[in-house]
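Exercise 3.2. Students should predict the tertiary structure of the chain below and write it as structure tokens, then compare their answer with the key that follows.

Predict this chain's 3D structure.
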Amino acid sequence: METDPFIPKFEKDGSSIEKPWSQWTGAENKKAKFDCIAKNIITSALNSDEFFRISQCSSAKEIWDTLEVTHEGTNDVKREQKHTLIQEYEMFRMLKG
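Answer key:
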């Protein structure tokens, strides 16, 4: 999965070089705009504290991943929370009376 914004490139002498903006095709231009649109949608829904947290991110994917870890935790944290809840459920007993 891509984490960087889409920038059209071409091969020259075995290396990848960014295309000048004037040479982008319509499809490449449209694909590059998707990241900008996604970034605008996400940032417009954030408060100032969250915006500061993601202000250094360069792509919508990076912003999304940062917010996901901030609000839900890493996969390890989520797995541990799930195990803890399962353990609490298994230990649950009805009280007498």
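Discussion points: The chain has a mean pLDDT of 85. The chain has four helices and two strands.
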